[in-house]
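User: Hello, can you help with two protein structures?

Assistant: Certainly.
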Amino acid sequence: MQFRILGPLEVWEDGLELELGAGRQRALLALLLLHANEVVSADKLIDELWGERPPPSASKVMQGYVSQLRRVLPEATIDTRPTGYLLRTGATDAVEFERLLAVAHEQQPADAARTLRTALALWRGPPFADFEYRVVGTDRDRTTGAASASRPRSTGRSGTPICGGAGPSLGARSARRRAPAA
């Protein structure tokens, strides 16, 4: 399985793209990917998904999103911990991009050029391209150009926030889901 974040968020397994859902469920996966292999507290996720006014059912709804993602993703990808959730992965296109950059750094120019072309081909657009975001911090190095410093935010068709939150608790960038192109 590979998570693709260098462009629109996608997950592929055995040559097939997995259906990730939409809205906050998709934003939840993006938030967990930004902190892959780290426990993210449920409170932090709720704050990021709903902002300052989460509904009373936010915890239950988030558990539903996790359940839906677990049906789609391979077993044991998302672990429940006493304080939150942990997404287990090392397989992202951003990690592969960084690996290829390191390989190219050690190669002769002609080989390095080929390796760099392969690395650049992994980019399908800006990180998390299916989310709008603005930079609110300066950390631009982690996960190739600040992909991991993002904080996804989604909006519904009306433009009403369905995923948000104030403050930099999960990163230096915030994002809103783009409406599909007409």
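That covers the first. Now for the second protein you mentioned:
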Amino acid sequence: MKLKCPSCGREFPPEDINIKSDIAYCRKCSQGFAISELVGAEGDAGEGVPERAEMPGGTKVRFTRDRWNLAAILPRGAPRGFGCFMLFFTIFWNTITWTFVLGALFGDAPDGFQWAVLLFMVPFVLIGIVTLILALYGLFGRCSFAMNASEILIVYKVFLFRFRRRYRTPDLERVALAQGYKQNDSPVMGVGLFMKGRASPVVFGTGLSDEEKRWLAWEVHDFKRGLPPPGPDTPGGLVRGERPPNDMSGGHYMR
């Protein structure tokens, strides 16, 4: 297993690893780290500390970063993978569900039995609505990510629907590629945010290319480790929700 410095992401050369003393030394950071803890972190994250990566050429991710703010708008979904699967599942599920619902409404069954069937079908109809929203998000949805010294905001948007998730930046322990979901028994990776107190990471960006995922994971990791500790003089507080300015310049999307 390759061990990397949790501060800068540099791989430890063999001469800087002392198994007997349980110490790995980073010459760039001038710091020593317990090998046992590094091995545990590597195993939990799957990728450990992200490697330095440059913005891929031709990326459609709209990205801005300054000392206090980082923001990224991911490209809209495409008719592939998760979106196509959910669309097929939604059509299949809702066809069966509404066959029963319409049969109960317009059939010749007694009134008591009719209402019993309708009440029984309510959760199935709700599941169908959720799968429809997921299918539309997979095909046409957009995710945006924003972060400053105080808060992290992730917004999922499809047409008029918006779902916001907020987290405290000080609770972000590390960033690594992590599994978002499985497709055909194969893990689909995304940018994973390992938050204090959460058993599983917060994952976004599963629709990006592998190069974009590695680059964005590095940017978030590098931004987080460069932030000063929260204090009265530290800018914070997300403003303008999920929408940065059109020119994507500076950190206007947060205070």
